[in-house]
Protein: 3-oxoacyl-[acyl-carrier protein] reductase
Organism: Streptomyces iranensis
Amino acid sequence: MASVSGGREGRPGPGERSGVDGKRVLVTGGSRGLGEQIVRLLAAGGARLATCARTPEHLRSLTASLSAEGHGEPFTSALDVTAPELLERFVEAAGIRFSGLDGVVACAGGARGRGVEEADSQDWSLTWEMNVGHTARLVKAAVPHLRRAGGGSVVVIASISGWKPGPQAQYGAAKAAQIHLAASLARELGPDGIRVNAVSPGSMLIPGKRWDRMRTEEPEAYARFTAELPRGELVTPREVAQVVAFLLSDASSGVSGAHLPVDRAQNAPTPGGY
Ligand SMILES: NC(=O)c1ccc[n+]([C@@H]2O[C@H](COP(=O)([O-])OP(=O)(O)OC[C@H]3O[C@@H](n4cnc5c(N)ncnc54)[C@H](OP(=O)(O)O)[C@@H]3O)[C@@H](O)[C@H]2O)c1
């Protein structure tokens, strides 16, 4: 599949608008994968960005690339979102630097361990912390800065695994909890003008990652996996990023407490999961 500018994949095309011009947005896990696509789309739309990830080199190359494209430099910090003090300090620093936050995206996440008979208690607690614990602490730390901006939008990246059963129950259970968390926080923070929504990507075709490798290394297994999708194609991270940008924009002012699957009507995992 060729990479194209804008649209379903690739880098944002010139003039690609996302309704986020001037918005101050913090994205966790913005150096690679879906988070990188979100950061790039928002930066191209004129947003001011803060992002974190564990690997400093990836943050440096993202910064260099955005700067070379004329989108300014994001405020970055190398940290693990499961370390509460580091995450809180980063959110505080971003909120002060930007004099408030208009948007927050809890994107960092993932799974540890395998099936229920192999996964140990650490796999369960780490998976919970990476997804749910990090999101709860992120929102708590961001609330004063969102209030200072007069309200804002929080987007929680959950997963198809959070609402359709599949292997790695510790991951699905944590993602389901994120969906519930978003709906609950939307009610709790709504009086302050803070909207909270969850987005559930299907299995994303991310260059060099799991499904992209399967596509090139095991084409027959990939064809079996994607055959059940109505168009036989996985969703792209760009398509998910576009929905995130919409939820951060004022065009979605009436949407809060919602759960938006972005999965091209995907309905079945591989034996290893979604
Ligand atoms: N991939 C899929 O098909 C898929 C499908 C549905 C939902 N999701 C969800 O979408 C989100 C992004 O997935 P992805 O596949 O794009 O993830 P990824 O490629 O594994 O990582 C995305 C970003 O998160 C950072 N990150 C990961 N763990 C972190 C941690 N503990 N602390 C700080 N930063 C961390 C990574 O940088 P470092 O590694 O340098 O920290 C990277 O910048 C996750 O919440 C995932 O559960 C993914």
Q: What stands out?
A: Residues 24-204+236-262 form a domain with the Rossmann fold fold (CATH 3.40.50.720).
